[in-house]
Fold this protein.
Amino acid sequence: MILVADSGSTKTDWRLIDNESIKQFSCIGLNPDFVDSEKVKNVLGDTFSQIDSSSVLKIHFYGSGCSSESRNVIIELGLKEVFPHSDIFVYHDLLGAARAACGKRQGIAGILGTGSNCCLFDGVEVVQQFKSGGFIISDEGGGVDIGKRVLKSFIEGRMPEELNERFLKRYKTTVDVILENLYKKPHPNKYLASFSRFAFHNKENPFISEILENSFSAYFQKMVTRFDQYETIPLNLVGSIAFYYQELIRKVAQNFGVQVGTILEKPISGLALYHSSLGAE
């Protein structure tokens, strides 16, 4: 059997592949920036308590935060405690996005979820990517960026009156409360991204429509079009923002001469297909 995981900071989706059968599991997010090996062991011991660990031959773990050997070993050690007979492979979530969305075909692969990212994929590995400054100075097109643009318009008094009333009715907040959440409380990125929902529910409003188009245009301008082949190979995307705004994203892509191919809300289904099609791999 093969076990495949797609892990974010809040949730991990698992697929257990046994020949033609695929079973689903889930647990909390296992980001090595926030959990240690002991936590990984305890969580997985509970999650897979009904599974014969010796029957799992390979584990492919794609995770947020799994971007260096020192981080990856945290996950590896925890997995090894629960699955001592398994070959374990830990990868960054960007490779997971690429393999999920592109399969074994060459393409540009991107993430548009809470944050954003992009890479060039050759069908097996990521062959080119650019550094990201994270949610404070980068992440164009992601939920954080959209939420940031919504909040900025509210705080600065540029939001039209009707939208402003809807905003206050929905969130019952003040500028002081917003600033406290942004600068004094943990996880400001998640707080910012939560306001992208307001944009989605008001996406037909011309003011919000412009915010969304500007955010996605920034994603294509600052990330996608940096690749030399952006006009000749398709862009394939994963993430909730990509999935729920796909009509607008395809429209913006045309303005930049980009062909958009596959869009998946979650990578795990594509990753399960990728590894099941590889058989023993």
